[in-house]
User: Fold these one by one.
Assistant:
Number 1:
Amino acid sequence: MKNNITIMFVGTCSGTEPMPGRHHTSFIIKNQGRLYWFDAGECCSHTAHVAGMDLPLTEAIFVSHTHMDHIGGLPNLLWTLNKLSNVSQDALHRLEDRVIEVFIPDLDVWDGILKLLAGTEGRFQTPFNLQAKRYEDGVIYDANGVRVIALHNGHLGHTAPFKSFSFRVEIGQRSIVYSGDVESIEDCEPLLDDCDMLLMETGHHKVEDVCRWLKNSGKCIGQLIFVHHGRAVLDNHARELGKANEILGEEVSIAYDGMVVQL
């Protein structure tokens, strides 16, 4: 039996000024009663909670890089988890003594987040524990039937220590690749073999260029979903989707805030 994997796109906008109906990049993979966050743009916890996501199920948070449009909502997400434990005995029971792992490529930024949270009520004393981990290329998480592989990209340069990454998530026989922000789609090419779903950013790339590259690459991509939208998509969603469908067919879509898909 296949796993029932749910992906919710919490925020789908690139690092623009505030846009109606869109927030900065964040999505959640839900599998077997656990939530795995990938990036945490503005308002991510509010959007997910109001949409009915059970936030105390949070197991781990993966940050592709520490630009504001990918991490601006992280302090509030952690604060919200603590708030839920204060207002709900059920949430407290499920969060108490838990360890939530935060995978982040820059621990200096993490230290700043903790200092920010220490300024809130109660100095952010939580019933759960946070464990921040700086990661490099390779398998960074392998538990509960979920495996996450990181690969650095050129968005913030090609010199170690690397500060920007793409991810491949493997759950059973299914796989999801998230580009993060990349210098070129070739940055995440090694992750794309037999990929069931590719989540590809448009903040720095043209939809048609990505589609043509994929068509010519020989890679087997089950479904392409564009995320982290740049100006072209934000200006005319239908036009850009039409370009993509003309090149790759109907297995292409453009994510919007609150969109939920099953894999």
Number 2:
Amino acid sequence: MFRHLMSCLAVSLTCGSALAADPAPFTGNAMLASDYKFRGFTQTRYKPALQGGFDFAHSSGFYVGNWNSNVEQSLFDGASLEMDVYGGFKKAMGAITYDVGVIHYAYPGSGLTITKIDNTEAYVGASVGPVSAKLYYALTGYFDTKTLAARNGLSTDGTTYLDVTATVDLGSGWSGTAHAGVLSMKNAASNGYASSVTDYKLGISRDISGWVLGAAYVTTSRKDYFLTGDLKPAGDPRLLASVSKTF
């Protein structure tokens, strides 16, 4: 799964599994999580999320996929579902694995009162051993910030997100992960935001007969950078739990 690194460790561990050595061309994934945190901020107003998707990976390195999750309607102006579609190319060259692609985030039913919420990003990444880094670049207005941008004429196109993650095999089915991500908002000050916000995650998981149980602590440098539907900080620190399976 290439959608993004979730706050729950289980997804960090299954991301890219469809492109491991000699992969099955089709894979699916499903997860139940205590909260859906995207880049450090809740998308379900700190409520549980049911998520899943599928991937097709060709032996040449090209891949396409889809990922879905429930979201809080008040956060997405009427939408209760996030649907992501992505495609790209991932290939190992020596010790380095490269990954380039495009992802589109859609929220069917949004735009009930203000504006339709969506986003398209291009990304490029590389991994060496347990460490990976990926840079996302917004090709459109960054999610609902396009509403503010439309009022003042300063687009948030070009917003970037840098994701750096290390995942370590601890043996006996245990794995640990550490993550830091930096969101840099284009025309941030003019749209009422600080120029950047950082999110952090520390997690651990256990693979039990193909079922991955995960726990992760997620926090942000600016808790109220984004707000929930009831105008409370969306970046409050949380200890999250999840169970997932790839099939």
Number 3:
Amino acid sequence: MLLIFDLDGTLFQAKPVVLRADLRLLREMNIPAPDENTLLKNAGKGLDALLYSILSDGADIASVRTRYLELVCEEILDIGELFPGVHETITQLHSDGHRLVICSNSPEEYIKTVLEHTGIAGLFTSYRSAESYPSKAELIRKLVRELITPGDSAIVIGDTHGDIEAAHENGIPAIAVTYGYGNKSMLAAAEYFADTPADILRCIPRKA
């Protein structure tokens, strides 16, 4: 089976990393920091959306983007962690013979840094950023065309309504994870729910 994973909030605890990078960037630019909820409200929606949410009107996003990505990757290396139990679950799914891919709104450099720092890069067939696609649904469509094999199937695992919607736009079932930043009310359209990473294993058939 092809398992299409979201990254932030599904595998990786992104909020502490993003918050520290936000505060460092704002300090460097001499911009007063808003409250924590404001800083985090667009986390996971893509780097440009995040920058627009924390910078003042008229800021040159393109000129800030490179520096912010440097900061966030530094924070990944300093404090970045998977959710407890994710490493064991991913390792088991790989051992069971499933093909694992990442489909994230974050830049590829960010994804690569997370996977390598947390020691799970070798368990994934591929990782892709949705930044250059009209939507995450379009990227999932491309992944399925490229990676699905005859007689095989796919499933999407994520923590946002957007992940569930992107799966369904491609006729693919979804597992909603609720141990991160999502909850069952906002993810009610999913076919399956995982309250812990280990629950993902129970939603996916083991290969013979």
